[in-house]
Automatic annotation (TrEMBL):
Matches recorded under PANTHER family: 3-OXOACYL-[ACYL-CARRIER-PROTEIN] REDUCTASE (PTHR42760:SF133), SHORT-CHAIN DEHYDROGENASES/REDUCTASES FAMILY MEMBER (PTHR42760)
Gene3D superfamilies: NAD(P)-binding Rossmann-like Domain (3.40.50.720)
PROSITE patterns reported for this sequence: ADH_SHORT
Keywords: Oxidoreductase
Source superkingdom: Bacteria
GO molecular function: oxidoreductase activity, acting on the CH-OH group of donors, NAD or NADP as acceptor
Originating organism: Geosporobacter ferrireducens
Family from the record: Belongs to the short-chain dehydrogenases/reductases (SDR) family.
Species lineage: Bacteria, Bacillati, Bacillota, Clostridia, Peptostreptococcales
Entries under Pfam families matching the protein: adh_short_C2
Any GO BP: bile acid metabolic process
Name under which the protein is recorded: Short-chain dehydrogenase
Length: 247
């Protein structure tokens, strides 16, 4: 088993995921980054290695439990340990009013945003329970306010993450595994690239900070929650939204 700590982060070839990986690398972590696009994975690894960071890409669709189990086993076999899991993979996949939303779409959104963190958490627990570790889930302001039109499935999935975080935090803390979550508001990443610009501007005006957050700001909170400075935080959800009303 190597001495350096190991981060496994899903959906980490761009945006908040890649930025978070870099944040951990700066603290000396070895990176196991996941994604579903092999080309994007190779580009991310090249970027990380060019900065002197040790990283490997693990191709897996985290909505498929068999692929998750295989990925986690491969990471553990390669590095001998997994210290931090960040369940970052997720997304809207589209906007559909409830009356127009088919069941297949509903299930696909829940697979991506709710079921995949369960698969990943279950898979890493055997590797963390003897040495301790930290798991960070990513929820959303939509879990609290329902989000905008057409994202009921996404909001429901992210609300489920709140309960999943609090439940697993109580279950896993006796094993020295801390579980917490981060709830971003509107963050300036590709996630919102297809959102109407006028709608985006209206959101900005409703944020006391009068701007959108950055991936770096989210990454800092994620890292904090895994650090010794947050050792008494268990089952917490940290809001990072510039003061935006999330009730």
């Amino acid at each position: 088993m190597q001495n350096k700590k190991v981060l496994l982060i899903t959906g980490a070839t761009r945006g908040i995921g890649l930025t978070t990986a870099i944040r951990f690398a700066k603290e000396g972590y070895v990176l196991a980054i996941n994604g579903i696009d092999e080309h994007a994975g190779k580009e991310a690894i090249a970027q990380l290695e060019s900065q002197g960071y040790e990283a490997s890409f693990f191709l897996a669709d985290v909505t498929k439990e068999e692929q998750v189990n295989k990925m986690v086993k491969a990471v553990a076999e390669k590095y001998g340990r997994i210290d931090v899991l960040v369940n970052n993979a997720g997304g809207l996949l589209g906007r559909y009013p409830v009356e127009e939303m088919n069941t297949a779409f509903w299930n696909k959104v829940l697979d991506l945003n709710l079921h995949n963190p369960f698969y990943c958490t279950r898979a890493v627990t055997p590797y963390m329970k003897n040495t301790g570790g930290s798991i960070i889930n990513i929820t959303s302001i939509a879990a609290y306010n329902g989000g905008g039109p057409g994202i009921a499935a996404y909001a429901v999935a992210k609300a489920g993450i709140l309960a999943f975080t609090r439940s697993t935090a109580k279950e896993l803390m006796p094993l020295n595994i801390r579980v917490n979550a981060v709830s971003p508001g509107v963050i300036d990443t590709e996630f919102h690239s297809q959102t109407n610009k006028e709608l985006m501007e209206s959101w900005k005006q409703g944020i006391p900070a009068k701007r959108f957050g950055t991936a770096e700001e989210v990454a800092n909170v994620i890292y904090f929650l895994t650090s010794e400075q947050a050792s008494y935080l268990v089952g917490e959800v940290i809001q990072i939204n510039g003061g935006q009303d999330f009730r």
